[in-house]
Design a protein that fits this description.
The complex is a heterodimer of chains A (about 110) and B (about 130).
Chain A (H helix, E strand, L loop, with lengths): L3 E4 L2 E4 L5 E7 L7 E6 L6 E5 L3 E2 L7 E6 L2 E6 L9 E6 L5 E2 L3 E5 L1
Parallel strand pairs in A: 2-11
Antiparallel strand pairs in A: 1-3, 3-8, 4-5, 4-9, 5-6, 7-8, 9-10, 9-11
Chain B lengths: L2 E4 L3 E3 L5 E8 L6 E8 L5 E7 L6 E3 L7 E6 L4 E6 L8 E11 L10 E4 L3 E5 L2
Parallel strand pairs in B: 2-11
Antiparallel strand pairs in B: 1-3, 3-8, 4-5, 4-9, 5-6, 7-8, 9-10, 9-11
Classes of the chains: A mainly beta (about 110), B mainly beta (about 130).
Chain lengths: ~110, ~130
Amino acid sequence: EIVMTQSPATLSVSPGERATLSCRASQSVSSNLAWYQQKPGQAPRLLIYGASTRATGIPARFSGSGSGTEFTLTISSLQSEDFAVYYCQQYNNWPEFGQGTKVEIK
Amino acid sequence: QVQLVQSGAEVKKPGASVKVSCKASGYTFTSYYMHWVRQAPGQGLEWMGIINPSGGSTSYAQKFQGRVTMTRDTSTSTVYMELSSLRSEDTAVYYCARDRGSLIAAAGPYYYMDVWGKGTTVTVSS
């Protein structure tokens, strides 16, 4: 089992600021890493796959980077609609999700 | 547009079974694998398994082996997830989610999900 660890658990950011979320895998997952956004009462939404490729319709302010065991999701300038919980998921093996990072308004 | 419509909320007693449906539309049903993912209240996401809607083959997370059964009906473009021997810890929102990889391209499954249903709440309580 590959354990995915996200940090921080909660990130307080002001609108317009940059947010940097981290995801660490317990063993290498190559670039087989996806990021999802989930708002309260909604299903998750695919943001990034292949560690750095934006899914269809995802704004350019979302970017992903990393490979192996260390990954980052960056939101360059937070908009009001970006306050949500973000999950990373590895798919190098059977899918495993991180525990999530909540991005809240500062 | 691509859509996954799930069945309504369920309340079950411990020890019972639940069967959740997920009807696909807007794309060729047999061309994309389907996953089931659940989320307990206030918790993260947990992958349960995957089904090939074309041939019906399945793979389940080890945690659910022996308790979960995923099936499909190609005539109605619907996949089903049945979970048996329910306990309180199974209280969760259950999502179906389409794999991004296409069977036609023979490149999947990719094991990440690009289209999600709205979820079905299953409550297990005596």
